[in-house]
Amino acid sequence: MNRRLLRRVTDNEVRTYERDGVVYLPNVIDIEWAAHLSEAIDELISWAKTPTEQADQVLDLTGLALAASSATASPPSGAPEWGSPHQLAGKVALDTRVRPKSARGHFVSITSAWQLHPAIRDLAMDSPLPEIGALLTGSNKLYLYDDQVLVKPPTTMERTAWHQDQGYDHIAGDKVCAIRVPAGRETSELGLIQYLRGSHRSGKIYKVNYFISDATAPEDAGEPIPLIEGNERDFDIVTFAPGPGDVVVHHLRTLHGAAGNSSETDTRRAVTFRYAGDDVRYYFRRFAPPAQRPSQLRDGDPLDLEPERHPIVWSDSRLS
Question: Is the torsion defined by CA of 33, 34, 36, 40 positive or negative?
Fold first, then answer.
């Protein structure tokens, strides 16, 4: 399998990323990476169906939505956990295009998959992706921050609410990016990711929502997310239909969201790796989801101090 870029990232693509906060890079990595990713995701999903010590890394978002449909807005006692059915009660974002004929598809999220499957780890660390991340962020050194595998099977009703990644991460800095690798060809029927061009440039950190809902914690001091859903014509939105060998890269401050999966036969599967560059430091965010497990780092610490969680995946020395 080819571990080098199939082509160079052009100056125009770099400028597009800097201007828009998102860039589509077609035919840039070997399509075998997508085949390996597809097999790895299938294995991860099968593992997710059995109890494991990594259960906190797996979230059945549709199961959460179904529980929320019968929950009350206030928990019976005590403070609710992050993204609990009580917090989502009556607020789950559903795609009205999707009309399941029987059981609906279950939207599943798996975080830190690089720690669970060697093929995901290989893609994160030893593929052309780190070079792409270093080039687009202008970094001499690049760290793997984390990843997220998202699977939307046929007739998944849950939308991915408009959100911004950086509020979910315990890091601060500008040289940050997310590289999304699809396991197969994506179409509008499957629910393409939508990006709000230029939204990274404001420097704002938005309130953290619960991913399948625009609900937020009342105490969250972040900026309110603009009301984009239903008003898409009022915003500068771009979508891409990537396939094997393609990647889409967005800045962690770029707002994005997606529809459900209205297909009755095809699954949307992808992994997104979040990378951190030279200027990034640890920064605790109170409302980040619990999948971001406790760290020994303190605000302002470099990620070097926790190499087992944030390995260096690119440095200038790799060029020599």
Answer: positive
